[in-house]
Amino acid sequence: MAAFHPLAASRVRISPLIPAAAMAGTAGAAAASYAQHRRRFCAIVATAAASPVPAAAAAAATGFDFNAYMGEKAAAVNRALDASIPADEPPAALHEAMRYALLAGGKRVRPALCLAACAVVGGREAWAMPAAAAVEMVHTMSLVHDDLPCMDDDDLRRGKPTCHVVYGEPIAVLTGDALLSLSFHHMARFDSYPPDIDADKHPARVVRAIGELARCIGSEGLVAGQVVDLEMTGSTETVPLERLEYIHLHKTAALLEASVVIGAILGGGSDEQIESLRMYARSIGLLFQVVDDILDVTKSSEELGKTAGKDLASDKTTYPKLLGLEKSREFAEKLLSDAREQLSGFDQETAAPLLHLANYIAYRQN
């Protein structure tokens, strides 16, 4: 078998954050398609969804043990993360801080989404494990930077003192930088993948997945959402729903989208499957933030493992602030319904992890 090299691929089309249909045809057609997509998200705010099926009932109906699945995937991802950063090699302070932030806990939702998306299109877990670890590195980077005094200035994360509190601001900044760099290094390394991968197809998939991840966290994705979020924090201007949606589709949903899409790419999914999973991911990404906003005003710091009421104290615009608590809950229910609809074209047994991950995001308590 020919040696696999992650860069041995021709140019690859990177799917945009807006739907693929919006990129085809004339500029007018693209604008109309995107406007239609935008209207769908805005319209569902005013529409109450049918009552969702409780996660426990859904699990009983399908025989799928979600807790066991998440425990198994979290353990596998934690092993991969632990092996990715040396414990004692210099610079020791940096590696210690990276390990502190990365291994401090967390539900590993994004890696689980990546692995589940790979499986639902027929791929093997080992094909997507490097990407699963990479998205958790990126997520942890975003938390480390988000907690800095110049950003959200938080002292508690995952139930522990934040990275800058323990190691100081300079090391915390560099920790985030190093984790971001490591995420791409880990995905691009030849020895991150099993020896039985398809040497003809896998390199192009890796390049496409790396491009997808880079776009979803850069100035078109996570970073863009963070910038607009900072601009709006404390503003006397009434933030319109469209602006709030922009923030969360980029700041929160983009990385969840990347997690799902790169898993599907590495699993060998068709373009049609990848786009269905992309729309599933956007729904659960926005759902994640709506639920986060609700929990921020209904739970304690002890229950959340992070500072509760922080958004209210910093005068951030949130869904409960803009829509009210009840409408926010209705919006969350409709987003969950939309996510389930996107999975209807897949084998339901294979799609069970993605279905239950959506339920988990909707019903989580922290």
Automatic annotation (TrEMBL):
GO annotation, biological process: isoprenoid biosynthetic process
Classification via InterPro entries: Isoprenoid_synthase_dom_sf (IPR008949), Polyprenyl_synt (IPR000092), Polyprenyl_synt_CS (IPR033749), Prenyl_diphosphate_synthase (IPR053378)
A GO-annotated cellular component: cytoplasm
PROSITE patterns membership: POLYPRENYL_SYNTHASE_1 (PS00723), POLYPRENYL_SYNTHASE_2 (PS00444)
Coiled coil region boundaries: 322-349
Pathway listed: Isoprenoid biosynthesis
Cofactor: Mg(2+)
Highest taxon in the source lineage: Eukaryota
Keywords: Coiled coil, Isoprene biosynthesis, Magnesium, Metal-binding, Transferase
GO MF term list: geranylgeranyl diphosphate synthase activity; metal ion binding
Tagged with keyword Ribosomal protein: no
Record Gene3D superfamilies: Farnesyl Diphosphate Synthase
Family classification: Belongs to the FPP/GGPP synthase family.
Name of the protein this chain belongs to: Geranylgeranyl pyrophosphate synthase
Species for this entry: Oryza glumipatula
